Amino acid sequence: MFSNLHFKEILPALGVGIAVGVSGAVMSYRLRSQTTLTSVGARLDKLAEAIAGLQREWREVRETLKAQGGTLKRTNSGFISVHASSGDEDDDFFEEAYEGFTTPPEALLYKDAEESVEFEGETNLELVAFLREIDKLFLGTDEEQETALSRLLARRLQYTHNVHFMWRLAKAHLLASDVATKNGDDTSKKKLIFEGKDYAFTAISIDETNADAHKWYSLLIGLATDYVSNQEKIKLGYDFKEHMLKALELRPGDPYLYNYYGRYIYEIATMSWILRKAAAAIYGEPPSGTIDEALENFLKAEELQPEFFSTNALYVGKCYLQKRDTKNAVEWFQKAIRIPGSSADELKSKEEAQLYLRKYT
């Protein structure tokens, strides 16, 4: 695995493009490199070989189906079926291959069941009092959360080497990015996410045993995937898993961590086979995960704290849909709507649950 730097930070002179062709063409690649990083170049060569192999395999499959009067189509349920060709549907199939990824979906927010309220090892009582005030602001209105960010930034230079301060500074950026999402300010949202991710990484560097540092770093990684290339998403997906599992190891009683990790597994389980091949070419083995494993994490979260998060209920329902258990899916979508919550993530989850209910009831 590469370092925690993004691809574009590691390879400023390297461009990798994976594009979907037209009129039934599969994937084309272009690699250009002026780097001396031979190990990275070798991995990218493997990616090129894998994509070329996929091209050949797909052409063979497509020609065989064409001879039989059929083609491939990805159904709404996420499964792939063979059916009579309608002409241009092959292109749609490959466009859909890029829609899912190995990282969590959009805004993974932002509940805090068990954070570091005891300030283990902290002897600065003035700092402890200040951070307790910040924690109260975090639980308040959008304006109070933005006030928390401003107050933390005002003391940033004073406490750059304090893990309790730095993970809260990262969290404050994430909460502010949620406010920016509600306001439709994508420029500010992006800036807040990447700045917060850097602060969270600093917190981990200070204390690798701090669960909150790993938690907020993982969540900010998840949000950052909205703004990076597919190659970077693969890398960030592995980083997310590593740090979320570390947070779970350090704090196994936090239901929100099980939700976050379950969502990661869900994305892997529904990931297209093309992206899985690409990940394998770069890293030697693809991410693994099943719908049953994702469901197990969501239900574990519910066991720890029933009906705690509308988004968790939504994903339980989505898992049951993947398992073709519509009855249980509908029950969980109804729960998702009933559970209180006003974050951008929760509001979007309720809207999605409503859409599913209109379709399946």
Automatic annotation (TrEMBL):
Entry-linked Pfam families: RMD1-3
Keywords for the protein's UniProt record, in alphabetical order: Coiled coil, Cytoplasm, Cytoskeleton, Repeat, TPR repeat
Compartments (UniProt record): Cytoplasm, Cytoskeleton
TPR repeats: 310-343
Gene Ontology annotations for the cellular component aspect, listed alphabetically: mitochondrion; mitotic spindle pole; spindle microtubule
Gene3D superfamilies given in the database record: Tetratricopeptide repeat domain (1.25.40.10)
Superkingdom field: Eukaryota
Coiled-coil ranges from the UniProt annotation: 37-64
GO MF, any single term: microtubule binding
Subunit structure, as described in the record: Interacts with microtubules.
Protein name in the entry: Regulator of microtubule dynamics protein 1
Organism: Acanthaster planci (Crown-of-thorns starfish)
Gene field: LOC110984954
